[in-house]
Design a protein that fits this description.
It contains 15 helices and 18 strands. The chain starts with 7 loop residues before the first strand and ends in a 28-residue tail after the last helix. With 433 residues, the chain is of the alpha+beta class. The strands form three sheets. Strands 1, 2, 3, 4, 5, 6, 7, 8, 9, 10, 11, 12 and 13 form a 13-stranded mixed sheet that branches. The chain has a three-stranded mixed sheet with strand order 14-15-16. Helices cover 29% and strands 23% of the residues.
């Protein structure tokens, strides 16, 4: 669902069927979940409340929706079947926003919200509710006035947005919404413990997972310990596998096992595999979710995978070509293809013809100095980790190496220079001098 995605009106989604990729129905849409933002910014559409055949209502993130068309929703097939629980910063569209009385900004006239329009932002997977379908005139139990109906921009109405002077975690989160996860983590780190727990509880799972990855170990353990256990398991599943495994490894054994038992079996198995390696080895540092391509994939296929906005720049720097199976540990590892090479060759070219198979991959037991030397010697930002059978286990990225080589308090460093402060001069012999 890319830049040209048509706008959907939420009323058309009420009760429509939700299918997995195989065409099997998994449930029906019962509501939509949005998060409001400060001022007149359009709210983000986080996902759908889906009712399963068992009558249980679950949350389906928009990131797991591949298609909304022809009166049906198609998902990736990966569903978390835990019961949906609304968070403090979330609003239900059908339950709380439709039929609400709001005002037009230009005229101050009161209108009734009949419908909302949502569209995916260009080149991103994020959805926004950017249109409001309203009716002028007042409706009531004993009198119904049919006034003019019109569609306006979200910014042209007022009545359900967050106010700048609002209190609580909602306003704080909305204020810092544009911060990168690392910067929001820095804000969170300096809050009082009580306030830190309140803000963490109000963040959605994906955002909290991104922020946790950037926090010191003590803060991670503190925040995770204050979440409900099922929510803590959800957040761990949303984290990068290597970061989640590091966090789990720092927990008491009984807490670790309890959280693993609440996770999806495949995710739990992945965590256990990562925790089986020593912390400062390639196996302990690697992510198990690199971009894996089959030999008969094309350059066009590889570039499409690299465009995924959820990938870090380091993971998107190259793809790894392997025999099936495609999930780690894969079949035989054949070699890597760097993204610069992908940009130089025609889209129909097979990736198997572009392999860089000269570099020796890392052994999972390789230590931190060996890994750092590998990156420095070959100017790499990511490296494959391959076992003795030739199967790709994962990839180590340069950011993971730096995390373990920098001083423990490196996150306390302020990286933003004042506007009138000159940049420090480069030392003689530095790269790029």
């Amino acid at each position: 669902m890319a830049g040209g995605t048509p706008r959907i009106f939420v009323s058309h989604l009420a009760g429509i069927a939700v299918f997995d990729p195989n065409g099997d129905q998994v449930g029906r849409v019962r509501d939509l979940v949005v998060i409001l933002r400060v001022g007149r910014k359009p709210p983000r559409l986080l996902g759908l409340v889906v009712e399963l055949s068992t009558r249980r209502r679950i949350f389906l993130p928009m990131t797991r929706v591949t298609s909304i068309e022809s009166g049906q929703v198609i998902t990736t097939g990966v569903l978390n079947v835990r019961r949906f629980e609304q968070r403090p910063t979330e609003r239900l569209v059908f339950g709380e926003l439709l039929d609400r009385r709001v005002r037009l900004v230009d005229t101050g006239e009161e209108v009734t919200v009949l419908d909302l329009g949502a569209q995916q932002r260009p080149a991103r997977r994020e959805w926004e509710v950017d249109r409001v379908f309203v009716r002028k005139g007042r409706t009531g139990t004993f009198r119904r006035t049919r006034g003019e109906s019109l569609t306006v921009e979200w910014s042209q109405v007022t009545g359900f947005s967050l106010e700048e002077h609002g209190q609580g975690a909602e306003s704080l989160l909305a204020t810092f919404e544009q911060l990168r996860p690392a910067d929001l983590a820095n804000v969170l780190h300096h809050l009082p413990a009580k306030r830190r727990a309140e803000v963490a509880a109000a963040l959605d799972d994906d955002r909290l997972a991104d922020v946790l990855e950037e926090l010191p170990e003590d803060d991670q353990i503190e925040i995770l310990g204050k979440l409900k256990e099922e929510r803590a398991a959800d957040v761990l599943e949303a984290m990068d596998p290597d970061d989640a495994a590091d966090l789990l490894a720092d927990l008491p054994e009984e807490d670790k096992e309890r959280l693993l038992s609440l996770m999806q079996p495949a995710d739990a198995a992945e965590m256990r595999r990562l925790m089986s390696y020593e912390e400062h080895t390639a196996g302990g540092l690697m992510t198990t979710e690199p971009i894996v391509m089959r030999p008969d994939s094309t350059v066009a296929d590889a570039l499409a995978r690299i465009r995924n906005p959820d990938l870090s720049p380091a993971l998107a720097a190259q793809v790894y070509v392997c025999r099936p199976p495609d999930e780690t540990p894969t079949g035989k590892y054949l070699g890597a293809v760097h993204f610069q090479r992908l940009l130089r060759d025609p889209p129909y070219t097979l990736v198997s013809s572009l392999l860089d198979d000269d570099l020796q991959p890392l052994d999972p037991e390789a230590t931190l100095p060996i890994i750092a030397g590998f990156f420095a010697t070959y100017d790499m930002v990511a490296a494959p980790v391959v076992d003795e059978t030739g199967s790709l286990l994962g990839a180590v990225t340069v950011d993971d190496v730096l995390d373990h080589m920098l001083p423990d308090d490196w996150r306390e460093t302020e990286f933003h220079l004042d506007a009138d402060e000159p940049a420090p001069e480069k030392e003689a012999g530095a790269h790029g001098a």
